[in-house]
Design a protein that fits this description.
alpha/beta, Rossmann fold, five-stranded parallel sheet, four-stranded mixed sheet, 7 helices, 20% strand, globular, binds adenosine-5'-diphosphate, binds guanosine-5'-monophosphate
Length: 200
Amino acid sequence: MTSSTGSSRPSLVVVTGPSGAGKGTLIRELLKRVPELEVTVSATTRDRRPGEEDGRDYWFLTADDFLARIESDEFLEHVAYVSGHRYGTLRAELERIRGNGEIPLLELETEGALRVKAKVPGAVTIFISASVDELERRLRERATESTGEIGERIALAREQLRQAGAFDYVVENDDLDRAVEELTELVRGLLAPAGTMSRP
Ligand code: ADP
Ligand code: 5GP
């Protein structure tokens, strides 16, 4: 693992990686263990999945509303993902979380993550990796997309896995408990004041 951030506290943390890598699962576990972090609620134009809530999982916007917010420069970053759905991080989310004295945690696909890394001083980017076979198995098991859309996500995942080296850290999500532990130790180390934790 390499660090590009030195010893100061991160301005925000980005968790990225291909669909099905386990970003959402790992983030849920990380939040239980590192209370200084708060997840930004992204905006999206995709349909709501069963169990998802507006304002908790995403801000579910119409395509017109999303475009209007692009026009008024409300997004830190935004992308059009598979099937043309848009996703973006609202600047207001960062302000809200920092106002609470917490550090924003962003879950982004790789293009948005690279943009944030280039644009935001002090951002730390963590890539969650898994094998292509494992990604396909997990997406089919999760069964939240159509077969065609799973195929698109897998094709994109192959490309995204090749980008792993562009990020500050890579965590392999093979065994879930092991990966949770590695990610937690990594983030705790980044948040600790310099000199209070041993570094690898
Ligand atoms: P992402 O947010 O990256 O798209 P999810 O967190 O939704 O991925 O995980 C995709 C699926 O894989 C979910 O059904 C989740 O329960 C499962 N999963 C996550 N991590 C592991 C793991 N280490 N081993 C097996 N299954 C996992
Ligand atoms: P899903 O439809 O599975 O919830 O998310 C699809 C992908 O969009 C995931 O890889 C997720 O990390 C990414 N994503 C979610 N919100 C944002 C965002 O605000 N910006 C970017 N760039 N990607 C996002």
